[in-house]
Design a protein that fits this description.
With 163 residues, this protein is of the alpha+beta class. It is 18% helix and 12% strand. It has a domain of 51 residues. Keywords: Nucleus, Transcription, Transcription regulation.
Amino acid sequence: MIMFDNVFKSAGGEAVSENKFLNTDSNSGSVETTAKPLPFKDPNFIHSGIGGAAAGKKNRTWKNLKQILASERALPWQLNDPSYFNIDAPPSFKPAKKYSDISGLPANYTDPQSKLRFSTIEEFAYIRMLPSDVVTGYLALRKATIGSRRSARQTHPKPSSWG
């Protein structure tokens, strides 16, 4: 069976497709042509004609967060349903970015004495000149307080059985 597609323009300027099949059986001596409708077109479709071509191109107005929250409050939600109030993200797999305590630039270095982060040599020199109360103020801003650490070489009292 061979299929021929004929596409032509109608009087209205629309492209119309016509499918014809040619049966090439050696058993039958006659040649038949039939028009077969396209399977993806609905033959019962009637266009509404409302709005024309520009009807679907209206600018959509976006709702802001306040409007979304107000509409969520009006709906009958259950306690366990998710909403913009109670959504929460899991912790990130990426490490947290570290920023300089002095300039706010991305910091690759940490001062071992004061534990302040810095990004340039000039900031390191500035950190070394800072008094200890200013250093603790910077650490408090970052919420990183210096706790008392036990060193590995700390001496422990000897038991009385040792001599």
